[in-house]
Amino acid sequence: FITEELWQLISERKNGESISTSSFPKFNSSYLNKDAEIEMEILKQIVTSIRNIRGEMNIPPSKMIKVLMKSEIIPNHSLNYIETRAEEIIR
Known about the structure:
Blueprint (H helix, E strand, L loop, with lengths): L1 H9 L23 H23 L9 E3 L7 H8 L4 E3 L1
């Protein structure tokens, strides 16, 4: 049900139109963004590393923590996302 709801919100649809009866979209290579893929992979690795350390130290996910990070390749918007998961990021 959530997929149908999201599909309806992405673009205007005709009355009665449904994702379950629509054709599968065609691949469009212009949507590929290698830099965004690399950035997302780095972000996933950071979040996974933080979660692993929390697990090894028996720190519950509900407890806010301080994170010390030093990187010149992580853009600010990615750091902002990580900050939503940590009490403080020391840059």
